[in-house]
Amino acid sequence: MYRILRSILFSAVLATTVAWSSVETKLQAQQVTGDPGSPSATTTIDGKQLPPPDPAFGGVIKQSALDSKTWWPPRVVPPKQAPNVLLIITDDAGFGVPSTFGGVIPTPAMDRVAKMGLRYNNIHSTALCSPTRAALITGRNHHSAGFGVISEQATGFPGYDSIIRKDKATIGRILLDNGYATAWFGKDHNTPAFAASQVGPFDQWPIGMGFEYFYGFVGGDANQWEPNLFRNTTQIYPFEGKPDWNLVTGMADDAIEYLHRIDQIDPAKPFFIKYAPGATHAPHHPTQQWVEKIRQMHLFDDGWNKLRETIFENQKRLGVIPADTQLEPWPSEVIKDWDSCTPEEKKLFIRQVEIFAAYAAYSDHEIGRVIQAVEDIGKLDDTLIFYINGDNGTSAEGGPLGTPNEVAFFNGINMMPVEEQMKWYDVWGTEQTYNHMSAGWSWAFDTPFTWFKQNASKLGGIRQSMCVAWPNGIKDQGGLREQFCHIIDIVPTILEVADIPAPEYVDGIKQSPIEGTSLAYTFDAKNADAPSEHQTQYFEMFGQWALYHQGWLLSTKVNRAPWVAYGAANPDPLNNQVLELYDLTKDFSQSQDLAEQYPEKVQQLKKLFIAEAEKYQVFPMDASVAARIIAPRPNITAGRTEFVYTMPMTGLPQGDSPLLLNTSYKISAEIEIPDAGAEGMMLTSGGRFGGYGFYLLESKPVFVWNLLDLKRVKWAASQPLSPGKHRVEFDFKYDGLGVGTLAYNSMSGLGRGGTGTLLVDGKVVQTQKLDKTLPVILQWDESFDIGSDTLTGVNDADYKPPFVFTGKLNKLAISVDRPELSPADIAKLQAAQRNNASSE
């Protein structure tokens, strides 16, 4: 009957205002305000079809306007009880980072949300950035949403292609079409790396996924001092001329301005904001003010072993973990004990963690400013706030020693000697570093659990902490909730609280079911100890997997530390595993393996995992890591070997630009030099922490390779170019095998050396050999630029950006000659991999 009445309302009945009023009282679920047909009329919708069908004209049309009657379609608004929503998620932070859950880093903003509402100690992520965020905004599992891995590692399978399909509308889109103002601030790691350029398409950008306003960066991380920043789809540079500018504050400022703007324009319009700061993902870039605050607290002087014990005791005292929780011994075989560190190591490691802690505290402070802005506009009581600490466990991608340059980690340099790192000690956390801390601190920040980000089979990788507040709706202020829940539960919770149904169709496309379970039942104090309604949940990342079912957790034994990304991958990640079994109803920290005691349970849960994996697009499982970064994807350069540019252009992201790694290539520039000479950038890609540049310096051609800020190899002419037309070239002959080696998930053959030659007007100027090249990736938050250099430069000793080319660039051409293995060679390598795996 409801569907019939709704159909009548939006078609035949709306032919007259009298008919409208006669049906209005029959639609109990629909809320209508104002005189029907008047400019002030509003209505809710049933939400099953988005956007809602246009209602038929309900006025009167005669030949004369004087004899006719106007009629306006009602404006769509959410149900009256629908709250504002502020969805906050931080980055790379484990369970024990915030003070709210026993950590030593002060997080008063999270404390405030906890005091206003509830703490959750049993919420889970996917163990990695993009996957968690895709699950968060869709309410579907990460493989269902196409994000089995981060977008930079996408492969051509439905569960791994980094494309959120049209049958999985985001919470932004659902709320937008139901009358909300929607905005996204900060990290967007759900736009495919091959769709991030100004060519688009933009349907996978925030503004194409239901968010009317976007202010943030596209990709896994960003230099907080000079970020690759966008407003909607336009690159912006608010930091230019402001040496103390930092994105953590800049983003909060923009969000606060947005809140006031929306409130002043239409105070009655509810808002939905996704607020996703880059903290505490590397690079850790806090302001000096916050570094000094943390340093004066001396939180880490006793080392990581003691830090872990302190956090553990704090957690028991706060009651956020059970009193009988077990703390496993320090993993000395993975990370050495603090007392075994040398004085120089301790000095460096303390510096690393103080910067991390300052970054976390600084970010929480700015989040607090945004929450205060909600109160300042008088909407705090009717705002549902989720403050999720981390999209995965604390990152250990800096390795046991940490690094001043995380780009080095992704290129296989994960154990940079401490004496080498000390060169950056005084500038750690500034624009001179892309820094990451030692994994020893990461282990401690995941207390009481073990392991890290990327480890989907251990709670240290997937257990987050969360606070939820809604003064008008949650009365059990300060309460603790221990029900099992997952990041996919946030969308159905918002929809239930707002009384908005999940749509059946969006843009005419039938929607797949929401896969999460609403947490709204936990808001009521009467349900504080209610059984978990989320009964079963799988986990999988890089071939490590687990299954939760009714209190039990089946998980694979960790077989790869996060800082180990190279080498042959497990060829059979489903079966070539040691399986462990835990009863989480009695073992909060996943410390007591019961697999030998309950072998039937192990087999039962493995069968259930396979069923879940088949249901949610987990297969085919792939345990490779770095190999997937450089795997071919359908970007705009795919299949092309020639590229020609005739005008300056900046901002082309790495995933959409010509890749000059693991290949031979030639760059040719046809230029004109004015009488006064010329200088400036002709072509660059990457930046201070890894990349290349082809430029003129005092009219002399220069080509430079920046090898991870550790070494710069430079080809340079000794004589300046004379006025007039010239052709300058850089020709590189690669010695390696190329990307064909990826067929067997090995990185051998990549990053080999080669010979580079600089030529002017066809004459050789300089030839020299590179022993090694970058195997995997340039600095990913820097772009491919022609005619100038945005953000950071590849060679600070020679120039400062933007270093605009002052000659005339008539044409710049790039030709790529990428070596490939034959099918026979690939077959031999695959056979060798299988033999090696079986012998191990």
UniProtKB/TrEMBL annotation:
Span of the signal peptide: 1-21
PROSITE patterns: SULFATASE_1
Biased composition (Polar residues): 30-46
GO terms assigned for molecular function: hydrolase activity; metal ion binding
Keyword Hydrolase carried by entry: yes
Region called Disordered, residue ranges: 30-54
Keywords: Calcium, Hydrolase, Metal-binding, Signal
A Pfam family that the UniProt record links to this protein: Sulfatase
InterPro entries given in the database record: Alkaline_phosphatase_core_sf, Sulfatase, Sulfatase_CS, Sulfatase_N
SUPFAM superfamilies to which the protein is assigned, alphabetical: Alkaline phosphatase-like
Keyword Chloroplast: no
Span of domain Sulfatase N-terminal: 83-500
Family: Belongs to the sulfatase family.
Protein name in UniProt: Arylsulfatase
Lineage: Bacteria, Pseudomonadati, Planctomycetota, Planctomycetia, Pirellulales
